[in-house]
Each structure stands twice: as structure tokens, then as C-alpha cells.
Amino acid sequence: QVQLVESGGGLVQAGGSLRLSCAASGRIFSINRMGWYRQAPGKQRELVALISMGGSINYADSVKGRFTISRDNAKNTVYLQMNSLKPEDTAVYYCNAVITVVSRDTQSYWGQGTQVTVSS
Q: What share of the chain in percent tops pLDDT 70?
């Protein structure tokens, strides 16, 4: 049993900042990878940022230089610091994690999503 709980979404004006958090809980043996995805109205879900256990990080081209992903292994938590927000960043942001549970089964888990709205 694994749960991912996101927080930190909200309404912000263009140029502002938000920090999203995602905490994983349950019968976790290890977290292999964590990341953030987003889905805007009428668009497919897309990768925003990804961080692996080995420290490799990938960002979507549209957020490079503005967003920063980080991970606190002790808290099983991933963060997304979002600066210089633009209206086109408006979307539901979803946390994703690849997790090995205590039974040693490994699979991908999703949070429920948190709304980020950026006004012009």
C-alpha cells in the first residue's frame, strides 16, 4: 500500500513562484525515481521534471531555468520549486514515483494531482 500526497498548488500571478511537495507513504522499501507531470486543458499529460535515485535530472524544455526538482530521501518527499511562472504553466500537476514495496514488487504510483493556475 503506497500513497502519494501532493500539496502547494494554488493561484499565482505571472512572474510569481510556488513550491509543490509530494510525500510518499506506505510499505515502502525504496523509491527508485520521482517526478512531476502536468496536464493542461486540451493537452496530453507531459513530463515536467524527473529525478532518479542516481541523481540524474531531466526537465522539459519549457521549464528549464525556471523550475527546480529536488528530493529528500529521509522524508520520501520530492519538491518542485517553480519560479517565473507563466500563464502557460497552468495545469494540474501530478506526482509520480517508481517504488519498490516491502514485498519487493516495483511499480509506478501517481498522486491525485494539484491545480496550479497562473494569471496574467
A: 100
